[in-house]
Design a protein that fits this description.
The chain is an alpha/beta fold. The chain has a single domain, classed as Ribose 5-phosphate Isomerase B, Chain: A, CATH 3.40.1400.10. It has six helices and five strands, in the order βαβαβαβαβαα. Strands 2-1-3-5-4 form a five-stranded parallel sheet, sandwiched between helices. α4 links the parallel β4 and β5. α4 packs parallel to α5. It is globular and about 40 Å long. The chain starts with a strand and ends with a helix.
């Protein structure tokens, strides 16, 4: 069965979201579009929370967010348990976010990356495994907050 990947954006990421939906579908994923559905102004936290809930509930393993900088989406998504949203503006950062941080949400800065770059960043995010090892304990410490 195809893996379902939720994707969401605000108005700043709308156009790129539409492009990446096609890329994900071509890679064989089942794309779950959580909005927004036009280039009209929209509040990014509404979409970030909707997507993060999918990860938090365990309904989806990983997801993709887009806003102007990627930052607001990541701030909102990272308030949810088990969500590790990474803002990545190069494939190398996406790769390290997977290898070291086991990022499960990619947050793309749609106003600062080209479509070609976004595709390469997405590909790195999707194809790179978590290194585990010494990084496991560090990930656990994120979940624990300062009670360690
Ligand atoms: C929208 O103008 C912009 O603030 C938003 O897309 C995002 O960059 C917020 O972090």
């Amino acid at each position: 069965m195809a893996e379902r990947i939720p994707i969401a954006s605000d108005h700043a990421g709308f156009e790129m979201k539409e492009k990446l939906k096609a890329v994900l579908a071509a890679k064989g994923f089942e794309v779950q579009d959580l909005g927004t559905n036009s280039a009209a102004s929209a509040d990014y936290p509404d979409y970030a929370h909707a997507l993060a809930r999918e990860i938090e509930k365990g309904g989806a393993k990983r997801g993709v967010l887009l806003c102007g900088t990627g930052l607001g989406m990541a701030y909102a998504a990272n308030r949810h348990a088990h969500v590790r949203a990474a803002v990545a503006w190069t494939p190398e950062i996406a790769e390290l976010a997977r290898r070291h941080n086991d990022a499960n949400v990619l947050s793309l800065p749609a106003r600062f990356v080209s479509e070609t770059d976004a595709e390469a960043i997405l590909a790195a995010f999707l194809s790179t495994p978590f290194d585990g090892g010494r990084h496991e304990a560090r990930i656990r410490k994120i979940e624990l907050g300062d009670e360690q």
